[in-house]
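seq:
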Amino acid sequence: MLKLFVIVLLATLAVVRADEEKFCAGCPSDLKAEDAAAELNKSLAKLAAGDGPHYKLGKIHTASKQVVRGLLYRINADLIDENDKTKTCDIKMVFYQGVEVTFNCPGEDEVKKTHD
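struct:
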């Protein structure tokens, strides 16, 4: 009886330990391209309705999300500017009391904008 109890206890601890290794509170996790595209397209539309920048989304290469003081999306994507020039940029979106979007494109200054 004691052996059975010890075996069950060890098996339970092994399962709990395996689950702990899969979950990491506050760690970045992969974000589906379609989910990233939906959020990024909303922000691009709101920014274009204001003073810009005026980008259209081409293709999402990578995307992750992370719970911070709010929610942080990190996206690497092709953006198409108003001259139909495509550039691959790193985009950071922080959702906390509004949305702060940072565009980091090669050969250009970083652009930081906010919207509701």
